[in-house]
Amino acid sequence: RGGVDSNAESFRRPFILAGGLTPGNIPDAVLRLCPAAVDISSGVETNRQKDRDKVLAAVRAARSC
Is residue 22 situated within a structural domain? Predict the structure, then answer.
């Protein structure tokens, strides 16, 4: 749970990566799997509300790849 699948080459179609993504693990996940997009919904929440700083950090992390 919470790991990045090492079989990235098995994905032949564009896909959206979701589940447990945070600003801290997005760069590794994106570099290893090359998704078309990432879903960061719960990974950028504090007390069940979107946290602006976490959202900005996640966007920066995704763009850095």
Answer: yes
Distances (CA, A) of 5 to 15, 16, 17, 30: 14, 14, 11, 11
Range of the domain at 34: 8-63
Give this prediction's pTM: 0.69
Structure-token match 């997005």, residue found: 26
Give Cα separations from 3 to 25, 26, 33, 44, 63 (angstroms): 9, 11, 12, 18, 21
Query: What's the angle, vertex CA 16, arms to CA 61 and CA 10, rounded to 5?
Result: 105
pLDDT value for 64: 75
Segments of the chain scoring below 50 in pLDDT: none
